[in-house]
């Protein structure tokens, strides 16, 4: 279980880390063909990073709750569940716009790689009722998701991550 | 009697969708800029319905000559409404609007809206340049109408794909009226006359 970095940019700014990241990226580049045979990594969705606020705090629940954002985090290739991974969530809800700080929060996956974060009801905004999720810690490649609710009245939304090591 | 009926129908087709949009439960969770931006979009759709009716002179009491004078003013209002719509959305969520304008948005409806916006600006620009460029009337009408058809199709698809403050039933009614009015006037005015003449 790794501890979440408070700010990815700060982390990347240290010279050693940059070299480390470069080496790791090169190595993972070589490993991609082998991994493709197993569980494929989840690609970042278009618009997923919109109104993202780095370093949203880990919270018991966002605002007054009433809606559940759920999902799993697994490792690309073997599909092993990843415990203790920090997932950030934000959306336009009954308690605020996407860009508002109180609309953002984060949670950690449990031993089965599952996360459940209670948050206010998501309401349609910018044409669709949708949520945003981010994995942006340093151990795996950053992924932003933007799942859409099939019905505006739904009280939960699911988003699954398959992460690729950096 | 017929005149009163036509004006009443038009008032209903325009006012009811706007009233539904103005009282949507979604407004409770939006700040004033976002509310204004959304309503400007609905208002633009409503003004759009007036445009062919005024250009074609089909409204009682507003024959083509007077109708077109009003058409120019409502056209300016339409352009302003679209600018308010996009500007307000930009203030509400800049990255979503940048995505839409660059055609990299995950939502297909935004591309239809952006295409309609540029076509609308093009149609308005043609009005501004009409005298200066001394374009032949029939060619000008063909170009203006061509752009307008893009505006109407783009706006209708844009509006129908959106889950927003407009009610589905009243939004559909307004869109159907817009398509019907546009087709009627384009056919009545034989907007394609410039093409036919060249061929014969």
Strand content of chain B: under 5%
Global morphology of chain B:
globular
- Please give the largest β-sheet of chain A: 4 strands, mixed
Helicity level of chain B: over 70%
Spell out the CATH superfamily of chain A: Aromatic compound dioxygenase
Give the averaged pLDDT of chain A, no decimals: 85
Shape of chain A: globular
Largest interface by Cβ-Cβ < 8 Å: A-B, 23 and 22 residues
**C-alpha-based Rg of chain B, rounded:** 17 Å
Q: What's the architecture of chain A in CATH terms?
A: Sandwich
User: C-alpha Rg of chain A, in Å?
Assistant: 16 Å
Number of strands of chain B: 0
State the end-to-end CA separation of chain A: 16 Å
What is the number of helical segments of chain A per DSSP (H or I, 4+ residues)? 2
What is the straight-line distance between the termini of chain B? 43 Å
Structural class label of chain B:
mainly alpha
For this entry, what is the oligomeric state of its chains? heterodimer
As a percent range, the share of helical residues of chain A equals 10-25%
What does this molecule look like?
The complex is a heterodimer of chains A (166) and B (200). Helix content of chain A is 16%, strand content 24%. Chain A contains two helices and eight strands, in the order ααββββββββ. Chain A has helices at residues 8-13, 15-35, and strands at 67-75, 86-91, 104-108, 114-119, 131-135, 143-145, 156-158, 161-163. By secondary structure, chain B is mainly alpha-helical. Chain B has helices at 2-22, 32-55, 64-92, 94-101, 108-133, 137-161, 168-188, 193-199. The radius of gyration of chain B is 17 Å and the shape is globular. Chain B starts with a helix and ends with a helix. The interface between A and B is medium-sized, with 23 and 22 residues.
């Amino acid at each position: 279980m790794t501890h979440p970095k408070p700010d990815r940019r700060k982390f990347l700014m240290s010279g050693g880390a940059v070299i480390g990241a470069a080496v790791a990226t090169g190595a993972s580049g070589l490993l991609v063909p082998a991994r493709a045979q197993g569980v494929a990594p989840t690609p970042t969705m278009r618009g997923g990073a919109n109104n993202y606020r780095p370093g949203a705090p880990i919270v018991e629940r966002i605002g007054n709750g009433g809606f559940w954002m759920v999902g799993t985090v697994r490792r690309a290739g073997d599909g092993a569940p990843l415990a203790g991974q920090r997932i950030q969530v934000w959306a336009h809800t009954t308690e605020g716009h996407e860009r508002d700080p109180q609309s953002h929060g984060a949670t950690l996956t449990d031993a089965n790689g599952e996360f459940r974060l209670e948050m206010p009801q998501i309401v349609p905004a910018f044409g669709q009722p949708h949520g945003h999720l981010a994995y942006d810690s340093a151990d795996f490649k950053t992924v932003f998701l933007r799942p859409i609710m099939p019905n505006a009245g739904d009280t939960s939304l699911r988003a699954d991550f398959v992460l690729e090591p950096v | 009697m017929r005149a009163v009926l036509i004006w009443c129908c038009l008032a209903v087709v325009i006012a009811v969708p706007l009233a539904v949009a103005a009282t949507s439960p979604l407004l409770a969770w939006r700040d004033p800029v976002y509310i204004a931006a959304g309503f400007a979009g609905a208002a633009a759709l409503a003004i759009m319905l007036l445009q062919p009716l005024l250009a074609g002179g089909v409204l009682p009491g507003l024959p083509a000559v007077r109708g077109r004078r009003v058409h120019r003013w409502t056209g300016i209002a339409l352009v302003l409404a679209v600018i308010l719509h996009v500007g307000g959305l930009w203030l509400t969520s800049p990255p979503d609007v940048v995505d839409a304008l660059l055609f990299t948005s995950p939502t297909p409806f935004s591309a239809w809206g952006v295409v309609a916006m540029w076509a609308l600006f093009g149609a308005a620009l043609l009005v501004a340049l009409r005298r200066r460029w001394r374009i032949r009337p029939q060619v000008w009408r063909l170009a203006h109408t061509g752009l307008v058809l893009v505006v109407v199709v783009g706006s209708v698809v844009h509006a129908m794909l959106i889950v927003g403050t407009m009610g589905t039933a009243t939004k559909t009614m307004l869109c159907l009226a817009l398509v019907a009015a546009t087709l009627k006037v384009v056919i009545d005015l034989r907007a394609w006359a410039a093409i036919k003449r060249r061929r014969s």
